[in-house]
């Protein structure tokens, strides 16, 4: 995992004109929250096999193990 350099943090604080510590903490909390949200959405998309942003009609459901579209089995014709 890559660590964020002190220079990057100083530039981030200066660019966003963050003065009190509370402003810095709030900005970093927002940045962390949006990063976590993106990671969780990607994990959910992978788990479900489709993105939640697609409409139900365009979703293509797949199994997580095979990534093959799920199709109903044909009726049993054995007599």
What's a quick, concise take on this entry?
The chain is an all-alpha fold and 79 residues long.
Please provide the count of β strands: 0
3D shape: rod-shaped
Structural class designation: mainly alpha
Amino-to-carboxy terminus distance: 60 Å
* Radius of gyration of CA atoms, rounded to a whole number: 23 Å
Strand content: under 5%
- Tell me about the largest β-sheet: none
Helix and strand run: HH
Q: Output mean pLDDT.
A: 76
Number of helices: 2
Work out the oligomeric state of the chains in this entry. single chain
- Unreliable stretches, pLDDT < 50, 5 or more residues? none
Helix content: 40-55%
Description:
This protein has helices at residues 6-15, 21-48. The chain has 79 residues and is mostly helical.
List keywords for this structure.
79 residues; mainly alpha; single chain; 2 helices
List the helices and strands and how they pair.
Blueprint: H1 6-15, H2 21-48
């Amino acid at each position: 995992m890559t660590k964020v350099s002190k220079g990057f943090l100083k530039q981030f604080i200066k660019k966003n004109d963050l003065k009190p510590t509370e402003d810095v903490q709030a900005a970093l909390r927002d940045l962390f929250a949006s990063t976590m949200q993106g990671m969780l959405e990607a994990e959910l998309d992978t788990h479900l096999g489709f993105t939640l942003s697609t409409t139900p009609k365009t979703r293509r459901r797949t199994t997580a193990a095979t990534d093959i579209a799920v199709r109903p089995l044909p009726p049993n014709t054995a007599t």
